[in-house]
C-alpha cells in the first residue's frame, strides 16, 4: 500500500510504503492482517525501513490508533529495522492513524479495532486508586464490627468525707463535730461516693 504526496514542494519524490500481510489463525477462526514494515522512499530509493509491532486487526476490520510513531513518547510502534540503517535519522509519527488493506467495501473503512490496550496507564492508576479505597473501606468496616460497647459497672462505697467548718447553720442535723487537736471538722454521716468503671 503506497502513499504518494504528488506535487507538494520538497515532498514530490517522497513515497510511504506499507507492507501488509494476512494470515489465518485457528484460535480466532478468521484471517488477520498486520502491518509488517513501513518504508520511506525518496526518488525511488529506500531511505528508511521500520518494522511495525502490534499493528494488526481482523481482515474484515480496519486498524485505528491515535499515534503510530517511531518516538518513545508515543509508545514506539515503529522500530528501525537495523542499527546501521538510515532509519535512525528519521522520526515518523502518524496522528489519528487508520489503515485497512483487505476487504474494503465502497471505499470506506470497516469497523475499527483500536490500539488502546485494556491496561493503559490511566486505567492502571484508576485500578490502584480503587484498590486503596477498597482497603480503607474494609479497614473501616473491620473497626466497626469489632467496636466494643461501653459496659458501665457502678461500684458504690460508703466513705466518710471531711469538710472544713462552714458557717451555714442549716446543716446542723446532718453534721457531727469531730474532736481533733487542731481545726474543728465535720463528717457527713450518709455521704457516699461512686466509682464508675468503663
Structural account:
With 198 residues, this protein is mostly beta strands. It has two domains: 115 residues, no CATH class; 40 residues. Helix content is 13%, strand content 42%. It is built from one helix and 14 strands, in the order βββββββββαβββββ. Strands 1, 2, 3, 4, 5 and 7 form a six-stranded antiparallel beta sheet that branches. A hairpin with a 6-residue loop joins strand 12 and strand 13. The longest helix has 25 residues. The protein is elongated and about 85 Å long. This is V-type proton ATPase subunit S1-like.
List the topology elements:
Elements: E1 2-4, E2 14-25, E3 30-42, E4 45-52, E5 56-58, E6 62-69, E7 78-80, E8 93-99, E9 112-114, H1 121-145, E10 153-158, E11 162-164, E12 175-178, E13 185-188, E14 192-197
Parallel strand pairs: 6-9
Antiparallel strand pairs: 1-2, 2-3, 3-4, 3-5, 4-7, 6-8, 10-14, 11-13, 12-13
Question: Could you write a compact summary of the structure shown?
Answer:
With 198 residues, this protein is mostly beta strands. The protein contains one helix and 14 strands.
Task: Name the descriptors.
six-stranded antiparallel sheet, 42% strand, mainly beta, Ac45_acc_su, 198 residues, membrane, single chain, VAS1_LD
Overall helicity: 10-25%
Number of strands: 14
**Total count of domains:** 2
Q: Could you tell me the radius of gyration in angstroms?
A: 44 Å
Tell me, rounded to a whole number, the average pLDDT. Answer: 77
Number of helices: 1
Helix-strand pattern, N to C?
Answer: EEEEEEEEEHEEEEE
End-to-end gap: 83 Å
As residue ranges, the low-confidence spans are none
Q: What is the general shape?
A: elongated
Overall SS class: mainly beta
**Main beta-sheet strand count, sense and barrel state:** 6 strands, antiparallel
Range of strand content: 35-45%
Family: Belongs to the vacuolar ATPase subunit S1 family.
Protein name: V-type proton ATPase subunit S1-like
Domain V-type proton ATPase subunit S1 luminal: 1-102
GO biological process, one term: regulation of cellular pH
Amino acid at each position: 500500500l503506497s502513499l504518494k504526496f504528488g506535487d507538494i514542494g520538497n515532498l514530490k519524490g517522497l513515497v510511504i510504503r506499507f507492507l501488509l500481510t494476512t494470515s489465518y489463525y485457528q484460535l480466532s477462526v478468521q484471517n488477520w492482517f498486520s502491518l509488517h514494515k513501513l518504508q520511506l522512499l525518496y526518488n525511488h530509493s529506500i531511505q528508511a525501513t521500520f518494522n511495525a509491532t502490534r499493528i494488526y486487526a481482523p481482515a474484515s476490520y480496519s486498524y485505528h490508533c491515535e499515534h503510530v510513531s517511531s518516538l518513545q513518547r508515543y509508545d514506539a510502534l515503529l522500530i528501525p529495522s537495523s542499527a546501521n540503517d538510515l532509519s535512525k535519522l528519521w522520526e515518523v509519527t502518524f496522528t489519528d492513524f487508520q489503515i485497512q488493506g483487505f476487504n474494503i467495501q465502497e471505499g470506506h473503512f470497516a469497523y475499527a479495532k483500536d490500539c488502546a490496550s485494556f491496561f493503559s496507564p490511566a486505567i492502571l492508576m484508576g485500578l490502584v486508586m480503587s484498590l486503596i479505597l477498597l482497603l480503607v473501606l474494609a479497614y473501616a468496616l473491620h473497626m466497626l464490627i469489632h467496636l466494643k460497647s461501653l459496659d458501665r459497672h457502678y461500684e458504690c462505697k460508703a466513705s466518710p468525707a471531711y469538710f472544713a467548718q462552714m458557717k451555714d447553720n442549716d446543716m446542723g442535723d446532718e453534721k457531727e463535730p469531730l474532736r481533733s487537736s487542731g481545726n474543728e471538722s465535720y463528717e457527713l454521716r450518709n455521704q457516699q461516693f461512686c466509682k464508675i468503671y468503663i
